[in-house]
Request: fold
Amino acid sequence: MKLPGLTLLALGLAACAQASHINYTTVTGYFLQDESTTDPSTFDFTTTNFGLINRTYPSDGDGGYTRTQWERFYNQVTELNRQSPSHINYKVLFLGRHGEGWHNAAEDYYGTPSWNCYWSLLNGNGTATWHDADLTKTGKKQALIVHNFWQSLLNKQRIHAPDSYFVSPLTRTLRTANLTFSGLTLPRGSPPFKPLVKEYLREGISLHTCDQRRTRTYIHNLFPDWPVEHTLPETDELWTGVRGETSAAQDVRSKTALDEIFRGNGTGLFVSVTSHSGEIGSLLRVIGHRSFRLNTGAVIPVLVRAETVAASLPTSTPAWTVSAHCTAPPVTSVQSCVCPSTAVPVTTPLVTASL
Reply:
């Protein structure tokens, strides 16, 4: 008997229960994005050095000023780990949102209310396809801007390249990660760019067809050299087109992904995560960071402290939700979705996407 995706998720989370758990906190004072005075809507990571604050560190020493800001920051994180007990460690997460996808363009075109209650539940509109959306031309340009910015910092500031890479299994994130990191001239000894495709780094699972991933075979054929976590099933067992994750359910999933990253051997101090707006928001909640919405293609680093506590946490399976939607294009409304009188709202899927 095939178990529904929600049951599989609950079983997977229960199986991950440990005799210990990890508490996460954001270490502030290093990045502008941590400060309450920084406006996410106007923040530009490319003009602010990824938001790294120009300051001194206790680890600078006499020769600190011969190194760049990023070299000194990396040394500071190294020292934080060296001076900490074994149950505490620090990593810098580079959280990158994918470039603009066709679903983003469609939502802008139709407006958010109409998008949420009708158009997002279709595979496309005959002109564009947004089921597991690919990048638009603009989205590809955004990813290349990040590529060029990384290369500039590697060349001029000798920033430490990511020690490990992780990516959501959805097409728009796979494409973004590839455009961002492929072809970079990395320092000698840097690990090659071969991101691990992780199921639990995907976007919040809603009724929208853009949130249904394609098959494991599709992902492998798209980037054959990239590792895919062994637990990722061939087909998407989480998306149903009927139930969607609540924020609480998504945060449980996000913490599971973070636990695997922090417990993993060889992940290093600088970790790249290419994901989605909603999922990055969830990760920020898990690590106790202030809410900070990223524009498409944007990246923010966050310094995270992880403390392993020798006590198990009770497993939780927060409820998912069902939403009603129109069965025909809604009446235009700026504030809310209004279904036509002949299209009574339903809670059954409009399409069964399987690509």
User: Anything to note?
Assistant: The longest strand covers residues 299-309. The domain at 18-99+135-203+254-311 is CATH 3.40.50.1240 (Rossmann fold). Residues 67 and 271 are 22 Å apart (CA to CA).
